[in-house]
Amino acid sequence: ELARHSTYLGVGRSNGRFTPKILIILALDGDKRVSDSILMQGLTIFAAPQKLTQLHGMDYRDIDPAAIFPDKPRHQQALASALQHKD
Protein backbone atom coordinates (compact mmCIF):
# COMPACT_ATOMS: atom_id res chain seq x y z
CA GLU A 1 0.00 0.00 0.00
CA LEU A 2 2.85 2.40 0.81
CA ALA A 3 4.41 2.32 -2.66
CA ARG A 4 1.31 1.85 -4.80
CA HIS A 5 1.32 5.36 -6.33
CA SER A 6 4.95 6.26 -5.69
CA THR A 7 7.77 6.88 -8.11
CA TYR A 8 10.47 6.49 -5.45
CA LEU A 9 10.66 4.43 -2.30
CA GLY A 10 13.59 5.34 -0.05
CA VAL A 11 14.69 3.20 2.85
CA GLY A 12 17.17 4.38 5.43
CA ARG A 13 18.38 2.99 8.71
CA SER A 14 20.68 4.04 11.49
CA ASN A 15 23.95 2.33 12.24
CA GLY A 16 25.12 1.15 15.60
CA ARG A 17 25.84 -2.23 17.04
CA PHE A 18 24.36 -2.00 20.52
CA THR A 19 21.67 0.65 20.11
CA PRO A 20 18.05 0.37 18.99
CA LYS A 21 17.81 0.62 15.22
CA ILE A 22 15.85 3.33 13.41
CA LEU A 23 14.21 2.50 10.08
CA ILE A 24 12.62 5.19 7.90
CA ILE A 25 10.78 4.52 4.65
CA LEU A 26 9.71 7.40 2.40
CA ALA A 27 7.43 7.23 -0.63
CA LEU A 28 7.69 10.12 -3.12
CA ASP A 29 5.15 10.94 -5.79
CA GLY A 30 5.88 12.05 -9.37
CA ASP A 31 6.50 15.63 -8.19
CA LYS A 32 9.17 14.42 -5.72
CA ARG A 33 6.96 15.17 -2.72
CA VAL A 34 6.58 12.84 0.25
CA SER A 35 3.32 10.98 -0.19
CA ASP A 36 3.72 8.48 2.66
CA SER A 37 6.21 7.47 5.34
CA ILE A 38 6.96 4.93 8.02
CA LEU A 39 9.25 5.22 11.04
CA MET A 40 10.11 2.16 13.08
CA GLN A 41 12.43 2.12 16.06
CA GLY A 42 13.38 -0.46 18.59
CA LEU A 43 15.33 -3.59 19.33
CA THR A 44 12.76 -6.16 18.28
CA ILE A 45 10.44 -6.99 15.43
CA PHE A 46 7.63 -5.72 17.62
CA ALA A 47 8.54 -2.07 17.00
CA ALA A 48 5.31 -0.28 16.09
CA PRO A 49 5.36 1.66 12.80
CA GLN A 50 4.60 5.36 12.99
CA LYS A 51 3.88 7.95 10.28
CA LEU A 52 6.09 11.00 9.82
CA THR A 53 3.15 13.22 8.93
CA GLN A 54 5.22 16.39 9.26
CA LEU A 55 7.01 15.31 6.06
CA HIS A 56 3.90 14.55 3.99
CA GLY A 57 3.56 16.97 1.10
CA MET A 58 7.13 18.28 1.44
CA ASP A 59 9.48 18.39 -1.53
CA TYR A 60 12.41 16.09 -0.77
CA ARG A 61 14.86 18.97 -1.44
CA ASP A 62 13.30 20.91 1.44
CA ILE A 63 13.79 18.15 4.00
CA ASP A 64 16.60 18.85 6.47
CA PRO A 65 17.13 15.83 8.74
CA ALA A 66 18.76 18.01 11.42
CA ALA A 67 15.71 20.31 11.50
CA ILE A 68 13.22 17.43 11.55
CA PHE A 69 15.03 15.55 14.34
CA PRO A 70 17.17 18.19 16.12
CA ASP A 71 18.17 16.06 19.11
CA LYS A 72 18.13 12.60 17.52
CA PRO A 73 21.27 11.92 15.46
CA ARG A 74 20.30 8.31 14.67
CA HIS A 75 16.96 9.50 13.27
CA GLN A 76 18.83 12.13 11.23
CA GLN A 77 21.13 9.44 9.83
CA ALA A 78 18.22 7.19 8.83
CA LEU A 79 16.30 10.05 7.19
CA ALA A 80 19.36 11.23 5.26
CA SER A 81 19.93 7.68 4.07
CA ALA A 82 16.31 7.36 2.90
CA LEU A 83 16.68 10.56 0.86
CA GLN A 84 19.74 9.36 -1.07
CA HIS A 85 19.46 8.25 -4.72
CA LYS A 86 16.08 9.87 -5.26
CA ASP A 87 16.72 11.28 -8.74
Please outline the helices and strands.
Elements: E1 8-13, E2 21-28, E3 34-42, H1 65-68, H2 73-83
Antiparallel strand pairs: 1-2, 2-3
Describe this structure in words.
This protein is an alpha+beta fold and 87 residues long. The chain has one domain (8-83): Sufe protein. Chain: A, CATH 3.90.1010. It contains two helices and three strands, in the order βββαα. It has helices at residues 65-68, 73-83, and strands spanning 8-13, 21-28, 34-42. It has a three-stranded antiparallel β-sheet with strand order 1-2-3. Strand 2 and strand 3 (34-42) form a beta hairpin. It is globular. The chain starts with 7 loop residues before the first strand and ends with a helix. The mean pLDDT is 87.
Radius of gyration: 12 Å
Number of individual domains = 1
Quote the CATH topology: Sufe protein. Chain: A
Widest beta sheet: strand line-up? 1-2-3
Number of helices, counting only DSSP H or I runs of 4 residues or more:
2
The first-to-last residue Cα distance is 22 Å
What would CATH call the architecture? Alpha-Beta Complex
Order of helices and strands: EEEHH
Structural class: alpha+beta
Average pLDDT taken over every residue: 87
Shape: globular
Strand content: 25-35%
How many strand segments? 3
CATH class: Alpha Beta
